[in-house]
Amino acid sequence: MRFIEPPFTFDQTRAFLENSGLTDNPLIYAVEDEGRIFIGYVIYHDYEEDSKEIGWILKKQFWGKGLAEALTERLIQKANADGKSVVIECSPEQKATKRIAEKLGFIYMGLIDGCNVYKLD
To answer: Does the global pTM surpass 0.85?
Structure first.
């Protein structure tokens, strides 16, 4: 979370889940391992009319195992099935996210509101 925001309080977490995860079209989805143990979450929501924003936050012990790239590939497939392009926004310090975006063919669109923005049509 060091690149995202400070950890939420219990009340902030409840509000976030109610407003973003428990809606008709959730903005966030839990990520579980093969044993159905929570390991993080992904975001998938409208960005602009023709695009979806994707992202992920995984528990640290799951970093470096290819999960973020695999999740990104699955979210790209979902967006393509929805007829949308894909956008990733991240802190300029998130080097792993930049590597994944570039490896998967995203184009750097610039620094917008303090975030690096990558797009895949």
So the answer is: no
- Terminal CA-CA length for the chain: 28
pLDDT score for 15: 76
What are the chain's domains? Answer: 10-120 (3.40.630.30)
Q: What is the pLDDT of residue 1?
A: 47
Compute the distance between CA of residue 10 and CA of residue 59 in angstroms, rounded to an integer.
18
Contact 42, 31 (CB under 8 A): yes
CA distances, 55 to each of 10, 11, 35, 111 (Å): 22, 23, 23, 17
Low-confidence ranges of the chain (pLDDT < 50): 1
Measured distance CA(20)–CA(29) in Å, rounded:
9
Which residues does residue 89 pair with via DSSP β-bridges, in sequence order? 117
